[in-house]
Amino acid sequence: MRYIEHDNVVRRMNGRNLVNKLFKSIFLLATLSALLALVILLYQIVSQGVNHLSFDFLVNYASRFPEQAGIKAALVGSIWLMLVVAPTSIILGVGSAIYLEEYAGKNRITTFIQMNISNLAGVPSVVFGLLGLTIFVRALALGNSVLAAGFTMSLLILPVIIVASQEAIRSVPGELRDASYGMGATKWQTIVKIILPAAIPGILTGSILALSRAIGETAPLIVVGIPVIIQFLPKGVMDTFTALPMQIYDWSSRPQPEFQQVAAAGIIVLMVVLLLMNSVAVIIRNKFEKRY
Amino acid sequence: MSTTNTIYNNGKTAELVKDDSTSSASKSVYDTQQLNLWYGDNHALKNIDLDIKQNEVTAIIGPSGCGKSTYLKTLNRMVELVPSVKTSGQILYRGRNIFDKDYGVEELRTRVGMVFQKPNPFPKSIYDNIAYGPRIHGIKNKKILDEIVEKSLRGAAIWDEVKDRLHENAYSVSGGQQQRICIARALAIEPDVILMDEPTSALDPISTLKIEELVQELKKDYSIIIVTHNMQQAARISDKTAFFLNGEVIEYDKTDTIFSNPSDKRTEDYISGRFG
Q1: B65 in a domain, yes or no?
Q2: A246 with A228: CB under 8 angstroms?
Q3: CB-based contact (8 Å) between A181 and chain B?
Q4: What is the pLDDT at residue A290?
Q5: Is some CB atom of chain B closer than 8 A to the CB atom of A105?
Q6: For residue B110, which of A28, A124, A149, A184 is within the disulfide window of CB 3.0 to 4.6 Å?
Q7: C-alpha B44 chain-centroid distance
Q8: Residue B75: which of B84, B64, B87, B66 has the closest Cα?
Q9: Among partner residues B78, B133, B169, which is closest to A178 by beta-carbon distance?
Q10: Which of A63-77, B101-115, B149-163 shows the lowest mean pLDDT across its residues?
């Protein structure tokens, strides 16, 4: 007795192949629609902004005259912001990830912490802005400084860095840990000499992607009270500043149509910065992966 | 950690300090007394009594899940990396209970090297793999490290094959060579005992043969405890064999006796291939 009728299989094959092709097309269409949206966005921005892009645009301060408006304060401000956010968030994030993955036991408290880190990643950025306003700007009296905004941004991206680092640490093969412990290495020696070197590509990639999110965030900066028009550069972390997305937001909300072009030029600068950061992430990942 | 460092003679040429290297081979290395172990509610080892002798190869055989690997990992307390492990009873290593509160696991593992089932070199150069153990125990002198690396690789019978490529990645050599590098890495901490957890199960027959020959060579200086699925291997290389079944030691005797004249019916059934 045979259960598979060969003739039936052949007869139904055409229909099965057709369904296969249909779904392939649907998925291709889904991919293309995302790509299409990106192309339209890029086209619109580049066509609007490219005329305004010039070296002067990079070295001029903001101005009420669109033809003189430049992005210097915002660009330098964003770099200052990153100088605070990067060390703060990476040190805290990687530290938390090491603790949770390597030291903490698996009990109710750590499960609770873990769950809330994931929840934290989903909290809207405005809420982090309010937190920063309450704690850093007011309670700690840091004012609307680079430091206050940087700490706020660090909190915002911390959960992303923790989760990415945890995954990188978790993906280090258990046999390497066994080998290290088996020779009498302490936990710390194993972490520093075996686990972190193997996990660093993943940690850095995750961290830089999180940082590129921070450089594009506007809402927390608005809530923290970062000004838009500034005619000087911050000299230290206690000075106030403005950042790229703030400046772009301000330009795009102005009534004069010329400012739309200025905003588009600002967006191009922001996207170039993002692209540079992502390239650094890719380069770092490739460089470290080659070693192993 | 101070006791750990005494295995190296104040930074001079490293030499193994054995507790009692002059006594006959009948001296105990490990004396297990009434050992019980649970993974959560699973009673994995039941009332184990085993007396393991110095400079012998002790094979542990038994079907999958019988607790033989668990027992091996208990000997250097690697089993404690699994959460929810509980033990009772004691294991005396050179007369001292390894479960004592003041017995540091790092200290124990410096005396007891381990070789794992799958070759697991670190993603570093061959040299750095071997030097890893000495380095974590505080050896920084380049000359001493060089000596330890050469001595360990020679000890694991792989020096001639890798001496010209010490600074290449350890993954660039074959699986069998990787496993001997792992043995060399274990030798580099100058252990007293070497635990081997199915060290040839991932290797081809020729590499297996090389490692079996190596084990014979190593037992002159070390005591070796080897878990194996391969009964011919146990018969070929071991002096004593323990047969584990369902977490119990069914029979423990000279290997010749176990394989020619076992006293327990279950041992006979297992070695003759009737189950397991």
Answers
A1: yes
A2: yes
A3: yes
A4: 52
A5: yes
A6: A184
A7: 20
A8: B87
A9: B78
A10: A63-77
Q: Model confidence at B12, in pLDDT bands (50, 70, 90)?
A: very low
Per the CB < 8 A criterion, the answer to whether B45 and B67 are in contact is yes
Burial B251-274 (b: 16+ CB within 10 A, else e): bbbebeebbeebeeebbbebbeee
Q: Is B150 helix (H, G, I), strand (E, B) or coil?
A: helix
Using the beta-carbon criterion (under 8 Å), do B109 and A183 form an inter-chain contact?
A: yes
> In terms of DSSP H, where are the helices of chain B?
2-5, 68-75, 105-111, 126-136, 142-155, 159-162, 175-187, 205-218, 231-237, 255-260, 265-271
What are the backbone angles phi and psi of residue B39, rounded to the nearest 5°? -100, 100
Q: Which secondary-structure segment (H or E) carries B224?
A: strand B223-227
Whether B106 and A186 lie within 8 Å, measured CB to CB: yes
Considering only residues B21 and A250, tell me which one the structure prediction assigns the higher pLDDT: A250
CB contact under 8 A, A182 and B114: yes
Indicate if the pLDDT at residue B23 is higher than 70. Answer: no
**Neighbour-count burial of A76, counting CB atoms closer than 10 A to its CB (0-12 exposed, 13-18 middle, 19+ buried):** middle
Whether residue B66 lies inside any domain: the answer is yes
The answer to whether position B276 is within a domain reads: no
A11–chain B Cβ distance below 8 A for any pair: no
Assess if residue B78 is contained within a domain: yes
Residues 6+ apart with CB under 8 A from A30: none
Write the CATH number for B123.
3.40.50.300
Choose the mutation target among A183, A186, A290 for the interface with B, i.e. most B CBs under 10 Å.
A183
Residue B275 confidence class, pLDDT cut points 50, 70, 90: low
Return the residue matching tokens 């779904």. A23
Chain A stretch 210-229, residues whose beta carbon is closer than 8 A to a beta carbon of chain B: none
Mean pLDDT, residues B243-269 taken together? 92
Task: Report the percent of chain B where pLDDT is more than 70.
Answer: 90
The range of the structural domain enclosing residue B154 comes to 4-271
Check residue B136 and give its pLDDT.
94
Which tokens go with A122?
């989903």
Return d(Cα B272, Cα B276) in angstroms, integer.
10
Domain total of chain B:
1
Decide if pLDDT at B20 tops 80: no
> What's the gap in Å between the CA of A169 and the closest CA on chain B?
15
| Kind plus residue range of the DSSP H or E element containing B32 | strand B28-39
